[in-house]
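Request:
Um, any thoughts?
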Amino acid sequence: MKLEMQKNEFDGKLITFCGLDGCGKTTQIKRLTEWLESKGHKVYLTKQPSDFVRNSEIFRTYMDTPTHDAFDYRALSLLCASDRVQHSNRVISQKLKEGYVVISDRYYYSCLANLIARGFKDDMWIYEIAKSIRKPDVAFFLNVAVDEAIRRVRTRPEEKDRYIDLQLQKKLHDLYLSIARENEGVVVSTIMPEETCFKRIVFEIDKMLAAK
């Protein structure tokens, strides 16, 4: 599951966050954005996949319903991968050139995890496409137990009745840890208090910025 990705040779820095829904990405991204801006850094927030994919019928079907008979998951994964290539080369790279610290909510690692979790572990195209994707300067993987992640999601009024595939979430949990280990990712346990998690993230960001 090791990916060969393009080194970031621009002035800006790329920081990514991956993990289960409910792992705390939104909270930590907000805190990190405020912290970086307070230090005088230009910050550009983005997410993957883009709204074009997120709002598509095939994406919403796979995310929100238990039946997927009308669609092929490989087709969705290819759509998401192509969206990430476009996003990396036309959005992220441009902002890095301009000297921004780019923070992405989810990244190519999520595409890989979801493909494997759904039984397509022998698909090699995902590794080939990765060569066209910019490698993060720091890739955070926020880790929380599946039951706790689902509990957090259910506290959101708009998602309290959303369909969640428990077995899929368990597979994704383990895959994120494996992908982080094989791709120099930084695993942060978000079972810890929010402030403790944030201090761990800032420690890694300080190291990255000091190495400029």
Remarks:
- Residues 64 and 162 are 6 Å apart (CA to CA).
- The longest strand covers residues 13-18.
- The first helix runs from residue 25 to 38.
